[in-house]
C-alpha cells in the first residue's frame, strides 16, 4: 500500500470517531510523522479483516497524552518560561510597526468540540486592512471578545446567539443570549443553584445553570479584566501564521503543524494555562508571501538554498509578516494592557512586534517552543532532513531563540 494517510485511501474502512478520553492528546494536524501511522497502514488489512476501526488519524503524532503511562511519549514538565522586558531589546533592529493599529471586529464565534473532549472557541475576525478571515482560537471561558459581545443596532436575541454572542451553552429552545437574564427569569441564585446542578425552566427549554454558565464572580473575569496582582497566571498566547503545508498536508519541511498542536495542548490544560489561552491565527501563509510563492521557495530550497535565501531570490523579504492585526485582536480579546501575557514563541521579532506601537499589549514572559523531537530524543514530533535544515536556518539567520540545551 502506498505511504498515504488512511483517509486518503478509499480501500480502508471509514474511521470511527474516537470517544473523548480515549485520546488525551490535542491535535490539529494530521499524523504524517506518527510511527503509529505506519503501523496503521501495515496493519490495515488485518484490521479490516477483524472488522475493527483503525486508530484515528486526528489525534496521535505530536501531542503526548495527559494520562501517564499511555503509549505515546509524554513530556509532563511545564514549558520553559522566560521573563521578557522588551524595552531591553533595543539594540537589536526593531521590527517595523504600523503607526496605527488596524481596527478589528469579531464577526462570529462558535464552540468547536474536539476528539480529546476539550472544547475551543473559534472566532472569525474582519479588519480594516485586508479581506482575509483572521482567526482567534480561544481556550477557556475567561477570554471574551469585546466586539463580539457589543450590542448591534436592531439585532434580536436569535441574531446574537447565531453570531455567537452568548454566555454559557446553547441548547434547543434557548431564547436569550444573556446568562444573567436566564438566571433571573429562572429565579435562581447563581452560586447556590450551581452546587445542586438544579435545572431551571426557561421559556420553552431547560437550562442546567451549573453547566457552562458563569456566576457573577466569574463573569467579571469573563470580561478579561483580571486585576494585576491577582493570583491567576498570565494568559497564554500564540501568534501563529498560516501554513497549509505544515498544518494540512503533513509536510515535514517545517514545524508549523507541531507548533499549532502544541500551543493548543498547553492552552487546553488548566494546570499549565489556568487563565485560558488564545491562538491568534493570521492568514500570512509562507511568512506572508502566499502559498504559491512558498512552493516556489521550496523548489529553490531543493536546489540547495535555505528558506531565507529562497525568499530573497524570489524578491520577497525574508519575512514579509506584520503583527498589527494580532495586537488589535489581542486587545479585543481583553488581553491588552498592563497585566500582560505569556507569549509562546522563539521569534524575537514577534515578541516586540505584537506589543504594538504604544505597547498596547505587554509580553511579560516568553514561553519557548522546543521541537518535540528535541524534547523526546526523537521519539515524537517531526523528523526529517528538511526540518533540521529549516530549524537551523531559523536559529542562524532569523535569530530564533532556540537551543538544544
Ligand atoms: N516563505 C517560506 N515560508 C515558510 C517556509 N516554511 C514555513 N514557512 C511559513 O513560516 C510561517 C511560520 O514561521 P516560522 O518561522 O516557522 O515560525 P515563527 O512563527 O516565525 O516563530 P515561532 O513563533 O517561534 O514559531 C508560516 O507562515 C509558514 O507557512 C519556507 O520555507 N518558506
UniProtKB/TrEMBL annotation:
Q: Which Pfam families match?
A: GTP_cyclohydro2 (PF00925)
Among the GO molecular function terms of this UniProt record, one is: GTP binding
SUPFAM superfamilies associated with the record: RibA-like
Coiled-coil positions are none
Location of the region described as Disordered in the Swiss-Prot/TrEMBL record: 1-90
Q: Which residues form the GTP cyclohydrolase II domain?
A: 234-362
Q: Enumerate composition-biased segments (Pro residues).
A: 52-67
Q: Which family does it belong to?
A: Belongs to the GTP cyclohydrolase II family.
Name of this protein = GTP cyclohydrolase II
Q: Which organism is it from?
A: Massariosphaeria phaeospora
